Amino acid sequence: MTKFTLEALDAIVAARAKSDDEKSYTRKLVNKGVAKCAQKLGEEAVEAAIAAVREDREELTAEAADVLYHLLVVLNVSNVPLADVMAELGKRTGQTGLEEKASRPQE
Questions:
Q1: Using CA atoms, how far apart are residues 75 and 72, in angstroms rounded to an integer?
Q2: Is the pLDDT score of 39 beyond 80?
Q3: Any idea what DSSP says for residue 81?
Q4: Of 107 and 92, which is predicted with more confidence?
Q5: For residue 63, with 0-12 CB atoms within 10 Å meaning exposed, 13-18 middle and 19 or more buried, which class applies?
Q6: CB 30 within 8 A of CB 76
């Protein structure tokens, strides 16, 4: 089994988003704008949550892959580099999740 990374998928998404390939789903999705991309991300997240509740590992695996793909598409169309997200996650590893949440500005 080859090791596939989010960085590799991110590079594929970026290349396809800029391509002229009319058969590219990524290109078509990106061309519809951030709202449509975000809608697809939300749909996939709900499907992943439902699969988790059903305890369907196979479906959850497939839906989780869809969530990650669509998240990368949303980041791409929003000009947010995956590296920035990874850096944010890295900053959070020095404290517990509850400590990190408590440190956020209150609205």
A1: 5
A2: yes
A3: -
A4: 92
A5: buried
A6: yes
